[in-house]
Sequence to fold (628 residues):
Amino acid sequence: VPANPASLASAALSGDRRALARLVSFVENRAPGADQAVASLAARRSLGPGSPHVVGVTGPPGAGKSTFTERLISAARARGERVAVVAVDPSSPFSGGAILGDRLRMDRHTLDAGVYIRSLSARGHGGGLSRAAGQVVRVLDACGYDLVIVETVGVGQGELGVMEVADSVLVVLTPESGDSVQAMKAGLLEIADVFVVNKADRPGADALVRELAMAVHLGAGGGWEAPVHAASALGGTGVDAVAASLAAHRAWIVGPGRPTWVARRADGRVRTWLDLVGDDAREAAMKRIDAGTLADLRAGRVEPELLAARSRPA
Amino acid sequence: VPANPASLASAALSGDRRALARLVSFVENRAPGADQAVASLAARRSLGPGSPHVVGVTGPPGAGKSTFTERLISAARARGERVAVVAVDPSSPFSGGAILGDRLRMDRHTLDAGVYIRSLSARGHGGGLSRAAGQVVRVLDACGYDLVIVETVGVGQGELGVMEVADSVLVVLTPESGDSVQAMKAGLLEIADVFVVNKADRPGADALVRELAMAVHLGAGGGWEAPVHAASALGGTGVDAVAASLAAHRAWIVGPGRPTWVARRADGRVRTWLDLVGDDAREAAMKRIDAGTLADLRAGRVEPELLAARSRPA
Fold:
C-alpha cells in the first residue's frame, strides 16, 4: 500500500479498502497532504442527487445505537447499496475507542466488501471531531458509498456538532433515558428527524412515545415533523418502520427545490473550512510560542487572553 | 449597572451579583473588552491554595445531576462556603437552555446571596463551550467563591472537554444508564474522580457499583482510585459519602507537591489560550472572506481545504 495521501486517494477510488482505511487515518490526524487528498477526491463529486444519504445515529450510552446501526446496514445491503459506518468515539487511552462487544456485533459485516466500518477517535480540542467527520464523509462520498451512517457513543455538545454532517438524524432513546424534558435538555428535539424509543417492551415506553410526539408536534412549525417510533432493535420489531421514515425524510429533503439538502451541505462546507482555519491557527500558535512564554502562561505570570491578543490577526 | 466589561468587573469584585451576571454574558459571547476584563480579574488571583474547589458534575440526561448539584450546594452552604454553579446547556432555540423543573428545584437557592447560579449556552462551534467555561470559572475564582460546580446536561465529547476545567469530577449514573462498558464507551471512566450510582433502589444498582469499582481498580495504576458510591439523591441517602469523597479528592490533589492541581490548572490556561487563538482566526476569516468566494465554497466550486490553505499562517 502506497504511503502518501494522494496515492492512497487514487487506490481508495478504485476500491482498495486498505488504502481507504489508511487515508481516513491520515485525514483524522491531518497528516501532511491529507487536506489536498480530500479536496481532490471531493471535487470529483457534485452536491445534491447522487450523493450518499448521510444518516446520523445518536442517543445516550446504552440506548441501542449500535444495534440499530447494524439493522440499517442489513436493510441497505438487502437493497444492494454500499454502506459505510463512521463510529465517533471519544479519544480514550483506556478504551482505545474500541469495545469488544460492538466489534463482535459488527463482525458479520466486516467480511462483506460492500460495507466499510471505521472508528474515529478525534481529539477533544478545537473543531477536531466534526471537522474529521465532515472530511471523512466527503471521502466516502467520492468512493461511491450509497449510505453513510455516522454513529456517536454519547449525547452532548460534541455529538450535536457531529450530527450536523448528517442529512437525516435518528435519535435512539429508551424508556430509561428519561422523559421528553430530558431529551429537550440534551438538545435532541431540535436535531431529530426520526425518533425511536427502543426496548419498547419496558415500562414507560408508551408514555415516552406520546410525550415525544407531542413535543415534536409543538416544535415542528409546519416543517418536517419527526415521526416517533417504538421498537425493539434486538427483537427486530419496529426496525422497518424506522428505515421507512429515514427514507421518507430523504425524499422530503431532496424534494422540490431541495432547500434543506443543499443548505445543510453548504453549511457543512463552511463549518469545515472554519474548523480547518481554527485548527491551523492553534497549531501555528503552539509552534511559534517560545518556552519562556509558555512557562509564564502555565504559571499564571501572563493571562491567556493577553497572550491571545498579541497574535490576533489585524 | 455600568455597561462595559471593565466597570462590570469592578462591581462584580465588590459583590454586585447583577454586574457579575452581565459580565458573564459578555464573557460567554466574547464581547469587546470581555477578554481584558477576565485577564485583569484573573491576574488578581494566584494559582494553587486559595483557589476555589472546581467540581464537575456529569452523566447522562436524567441521571439526577441537578439533584446532586443541589445537595452539594446545601452541604457547602452549611459549611459557610460561597457557591457558584455553572450549568452548561446546549445552545438550543427550542429549550432556550432553561427548563422549568430545574429552575424551580434551584429556586430555593436563588434568594441566597451566597449562591450564584448561571446557565451557559455557548455555541457548538470551535472551542466555544470549554473556552467560556474556563474563563467564567476564573472570573468566579476572582470574585471569591469557595466552591464552583460545573454541571453538564449530557455526556459526550463536548462535556468531556468542559470537565477539563474541573479539579474533581463527579460522574452520576443510574442502573438504567447501562453497564460499565457503556460508561467506558462514553469516556467516563477516565475522567471520573468520584462515581455515584444514583437511584440505587432500582434493579441492577449493586451490579453496576461492583462493575465500576472493578473497572476503576484495573485502570487506576497506583494513582487516585475513584470511589464508587450508591445513593439516592432525592431521598438523601449516600449524599454525605459523595461529598466526603470529593473533599478527599481535593485533599489528595493539593497534597505534597500538588502535582495534579497545578498541572490541571496550567493545562487549562494553555487550552483557553489556544481556544481564543482558534476562535479569533475563525472570526477573522469569516470577516475577510468576500461574498463571491463564500458562494463558491457553499456551492462546491472551491473545496474547504484549498480555501483554508490560502490563509494558512506561513
